[in-house]
Amino acid sequence: MQISALINKQKDFLSYELEGGFRHLAQQCVQAMNSTIKLNELLLTHMQECQYANLVYVLDHAGVQISANVDKEQVLSEYQGQDLSARPFFNRVDANQPFYLSDTYISGVTLKPCISAAHAIVKNDALIGLLVFDLELEKLPLLDQKIELNNFSQIKGDPEIRSNLFNQNRVQSAMDQSIDTVHNIATELLCELGVFHIKLHYASSRATVWTYDDPYNYRLHVLDEIINPNICLLYPKKPYPSTAKVSHEQVKQVLVHFHTMRFMDDNLYLKTASLNIMNGIVGLSFSCDGNHYLSVEEFLANFDKIYA
User: Fold this and answer.
1) Are the C-beta atoms of 212 and 196 separated by less than 8 Å?
2) Each residue of 91-119: pLDDT tens digit?
3) For residue 183, which of 232, 251, 249 has the smallest C-alpha distance?
4) Whole-model pTM above 0.85?
5) Which of 91, 132, 147, 208 is deepest in the core (most CB within 10 A)?
6) 63: left (phi > 0), else alpha (psi -120 to 50), else beta?
7) Which part of the chain is CATH 3.30.450.20?
8) Is 304 exposed, middle or buried (0-12, 13-18, 19+ CB in 10 A)?
9) How many Å apart are CA 70 and CA 43, to the nearest integer?
10) In Å, what is the CA distance from 241 to each residue of 39, 146, 147, 215?
11) How far, in Å, CA of 287 to CA of 296, rounded?
């Protein structure tokens, strides 16, 4: 599923979870719209019980704030009277579309990710105001969604580097001279010795690896280490995970293609490459400073068409 679709699904879930409670408070606000004191008291009472909100306030039908800014501890009356009709949510709510959840933004006060939720205050089928909450994202009951990269992603790099692409030539690195040994050791690490992610820095002759046993910390190996089979003594044999998305044979094929791409051209060539056998993603960084991220299946199936 695309990232945008996952975000929309999350917002739909939040709307479902939040709208009922906000609707009830909006109905209570109808009776207090003519009294700022009663309105502020109502909002303060609600804020004492609201787990998710940092702030609540009420606007009239023209977008002018008629309540104070009310948080869990205080009523800030100095904000009353400001014109908020230019806020994005103002024209997104009416009697027929009573609830709106904004996109995420960084709060200028807390510097944390927030969203605003607006609910129409309706009397006799007419919009008389808006109830607005500022909600702190980390406090909300978010769905735990699985994020997967299924589509080819191409990211352009520094324009200055790209403009000088044909003024530079690949210089053979120390790793280039031992690339077959490096790839043989990488195959062993990935297929037999508990490494699930490896990144090969061909230009700077180093490798970074992540293991199942210690996934939060990467290990850096310089050239003298990554070309020495003794490095395998540091990684005890591990069963190949049944949940891996990449087979042993695919690991070998990917590394063969990395070799080809490293030497394919003196101007446009592979600088770094990564392979993750658990999520099945190949990462490529080129001399033009561009980057590609794609699945192993797509990389292998389309190699001749895209890269050869």
Assistant:
1) yes
2) 888 888 899 999 888 887 788 899 999 99
3) 251
4) no
5) 132
6) left
7) 3-139
8) exposed
9) 7
10) 59, 19, 20, 14
11) 21
